[in-house]
Specification:
Rossmann fold
């Protein structure tokens, strides 16, 4: 087979103009640049509406924390190199093996039984992917699937969820999906994501409660050897030209427009979900992309650099109003401390990044003294408060995380999780600061939205409750080790 020609720059520019897409600003989650979509969005909304009424299929639920690793097996050609490894993980209680579409039947033919089979493709032909006899596989079906897919469930256990893709309709698929919620099954799990199941599964892992995700066959590239093309591990072709793609580090791979597009989507999703630990097995376009992303976003073991510590000390000296916001949360912290005190008979509250200790002063000025309830302070920028803190039942961290150097966020969150015996309370600003550092940068050098922070926090914690206002996130969380102890995991 001859390698097909890649679209020219003029052809791609024409396609983008035709579909009113600006790649530099619209990002990845747009229609693919080849041919018409397989199902019109209005039809997708109709299928969501019909399937939402299926009371015989339960809604998929999320968990606060799943201690196992999600393993997603896509259909890329590299799967053939890892069949023994995948089989071992399919029977290992530390892993949950997911797959999708035709790959499920392929794995079954190799003696591998995945735990979950996911389908989100809206075409009727996907019902053929369920043409196998194995009741051990649990089906996870997107509401946008053709009703024939739901009809093919048979006696297998199945759940439904929404992988949104027609949100620009009126009504949208998100709106009509609400019919799936009723008194006996009131919640429905929904995800956004990329153009294929491989990228969307990152959102699925995150919302289901997994912290670790491993991929097999998630290649983003094809094998081209001795004049033969292998798009998948099994016999399936793609109706696209084959082109050579070059990664930013100079490595070249054979791919297609649709498959290679996942490389861009992968980067966006990794940026948005910093708390999800992702591994891609194989030497492929996407594993190379992940390696580059990890090198560029490498987190450090230290919590603050000497240079930044010096800048913070200058801020304390020059701005009397700097680091004075802790008092605003005195009531919340006092009540949390009193409840822990009542439960276990003692409670140390550590104000992590205590600044000018306005929290401690506000509590002592306005609330009764409870014997056994102590308030401690730590701040690496304040002489006398800069020694490494001792563990405490509650760690309070207010208006701190947005000031942490980007490469140190992981180390700080890990340190807080190690110190917190029962709870941690985070208050994080999601807007730019009114002050600048002496070097001219805005004082909030780690500025992110609430979802980014919740994802990163959940790398080490389980969220008990959270509230996001216009400019601020408040999250009450429990260290994963404490959650597992409490739940017997």
């Amino acid at each position: 087979m001859e390698i097909g020609r890649a679209p020219t720059a003029e052809q791609l520019a024409s396609w983008y103009e035709e579909h009113n897409i600006k790649p530099e600003s619209d990002g990845s989650f747009v229609e693919l640049p080849y041919g018409p979509t397989p199902v019109e969005k209005s039809v997708i909304v109709d299928q969501v509406r019909a399937n939402a009424q299926r009371r015989d299929v339960q809604n998929l639920q999320s968990e606060p924390y799943i201690p196992r690793t999600m393993v997603f097996v896509a259909g890329g050609p590299s799967v053939t190199d890892y069949l023994d490894e995948i089989k071992a993980k399919s029977i290992d209680p530390r892993y949950d093996v997911f797959t999708s579409n035709m790959t499920c039947k392929y794995l079954l033919s190799k003696g591998i039984t995945p735990k979950y089979h996911v389908i989100i493709d809206p075409t009727e032909k996907k019902s053929k992917d369920l043409d196998y006899d194995c009741d051990e596989v649990t089906l996870v079906l997107g509401l946008q699937c053709h009703p024939a897919v739901f009809d093919a469930i048979g006696n297998r256990k199945a759940y439904k969820f929404l992988a949104a893709s027609a949100t620009d309709r009126t009504p949208s698929d998100v709106e009509v999906a609400q019919d799936a919620c009723h008194a006996k099954d009131p919640n429905l799990l929904g995800i956004g994501g990329g153009s294929m199941m491989g990228t969307r599964v990152m959102f699925l892992a995150h919302v289901m409660g997994y912290r670790n995700l491993e991929y097999y066959g998630f290649d983003g590239s094809i094998k081209y050897e001795s004049g033969r093309v292998r798009n998948y591990a099994y016999n399936k072709q793609r109706g696209e030209n084959i082109l050579e793609v070059e990664a930013a580090n100079g490595r070249k791979f054979f791919s297609t427009i649709a498959l290679s597009r996942q490389a861009t989507e992968l980067v966006h999703l990794l940026d948005d979900l910093p708390g999800l630990d992702v591994t891609i097995h194989g030497d492929t376009f996407l594993s190379n992309q992940l390696a580059m992303w990890k090198a560029q976003n490498k987190q450090q073991d230290y919590r603050i650099t000497p240079e930044y510590n010096a800048l913070q000390k200058q801020m304390f000296e020059k701005s009397p109003t700097y680091a004075r916001s802790g008092h605003a949360h005195a009531a919340r912290v006092f009540m949390a401390g009193a409840q822990v005190m009542r439960k276990i008979g003692k409670c140390d509250v550590l104000d992590y990044g205590c600044g000018r200790e306005t929290l401690k002063n506000a509590i002592l000025d306005n609330f009764p003294v409870i014997p056994g309830l102590r308030y401690l302070g730590y701040d690496p920028n304040r002489p006398g408060l800069d020694k490494d803190p001792e563990p405490a039942q509650i760690v309070f961290c207010s208006d701190v995380m947005e000031h942490i150097e980007p490469e140190c966020v992981d180390a700080v969150l890990r340190n807080i999780s190690e110190l917190a015996g029962e709870l941690a309370i985070f208050v994080i600003s999601t807007r730019a600061a009114f002050k600048n550092l002496p070097d001219g940068r805005n004082a909030h050098i780690s500025l992110h939205d609430k979802d980014w922070w919740l994802s990163f926090i959940q790398k080490y914690f389980v969220t008990i409750e959270s509230h996001a206002g216009k400019d601020e996130l408040i999250a009450v969380v429990q260290p994963i080790r404490k959650y597992c102890e409490r739940k017997g995991l």
